[in-house]
Amino acid sequence: MIKQFFRPLLSVRPLRCMVDERFDVRVQGLLPGVRVTLHARLRSEDGDFWEGFGHYVSDETGNVKVCKDASLGGSYDGVESVGLLWSMKPIPGSRTGLRYRKKDVQAQTDVHISVYKDHLTHSFQEKTPLASVVAERWYLAPGVQRVDVTEKGLKGTLFIPPGPGPFPAVLDLWGGGGGLVEYRSGLLASRGYAALSLEYCDHKDEVGKPRNVGIEYFEAAINLLRQHPQVCPERVAILGLSYGAFLSMHMAAYSSVIKPSCIVCISLSHVGRIKCPILLIVGEDDQSCPASESADDMKRMMERGGNSHLLTILSYPGAGHLIEPPYTPHCQASNFMLAETTSKVLILWGGHTKAHSQAQEDSWNKILSFFEQYLYRNPSDSSHIYFQKI
């Protein structure tokens, strides 16, 4: 019987999947009523370790099923099939102000999942697990092409789904932190959309000189998408987070060239005169910008302009500013480099981990449904604002 306890079987299914997919974690071969800790760890490309863990008790058959059994403590509690992922935090002693962001989207993320005897809370690296397994999480599905974009003065990356196309397309804009962020575009391409990640903050020209970009820069990006032989030119959307959300609305309202089929704005500021379907995603605990108030303003603006039928608002209690693809570790605060300086500050983004993570999963599924509605199917006729409280 002792041998049975110390040789449990730990399984993760699927062992290799996309990062926006759930997995099933199970432990078999324990004695009934045994306390164990399930622990997940990954190493970021910056060399920092992140972990999440839950406390479980084996059932009368000696099994633990994370999809149906409740965690009694740890970094999350309750029945949470992917709590091991979304509850991840930097391990004790890590650098302050960390935010998990995938840089090389062509490489898998290895998640080391282990089961330990008893309910542990720290020093996992000093303990010997009862069993371990490595799960692979991917941002790119097989066959997705990654293409560097440097023409027309642009700097970005285009992701093209497998197959001949033509595909609907998305211009993917991140916030004011700068840099070229590719992982959301990789996921979109894996779901059937040609997606262009565009760098526009701290953009430099060919000789490395800082270059301020205007609306013409984004118009060139949209034109590049529309002229691509694998893109359906009349089905192009814009997805923006934070400052990228403001730019998305500004372009939809004022550009005579861009004219997107639809736009998705996460954690926004507001602009009126929108003439296309728009999905606003709001975290009600956003500590970085007045997202809820901005959404209310947008609602009133579009009612006055007679465009209320174009507006959908998803408002999430307990969610913060950085609403990312599902199962991304919640970032309540992180280091942020101030524009045109070398000063680094700690920015508070807000959100409560469980509620924020639920918002990330729900909003991602509804973003995909929104794009499917307006980029793949004919838009449904609606006569009122749709405001959903999650």
From TrEMBL:
UniProt-annotated catalytic positions: S242 (charge relay system), D286 (charge relay system), H321 (charge relay system)
Domain (BAAT/Acyl-CoA thioester hydrolase C-terminal): residue spans on this chain: 271-376
Cross-referenced Gene3D superfamilies: Acyl-CoA thioester hydrolase/BAAT N-terminal domain, alpha/beta hydrolase
Molecular function terms from GO: fatty acyl-CoA hydrolase activity
Segments forming domain Acyl-CoA thioester hydrolase/bile acid-CoA amino acid N-acetyltransferase: 20-151
GO BP terms in the entry: acyl-CoA metabolic process; fatty acid metabolic process
Highest taxon listed in the record's lineage: Eukaryota
Pfam families on file: BAAT_C, Bile_Hydr_Trans
Family, similarity comment: Belongs to the C/M/P thioester hydrolase family.
Protein name in UniProt: Uncharacterized protein
Organism per entry: Hemibagrus wyckioides
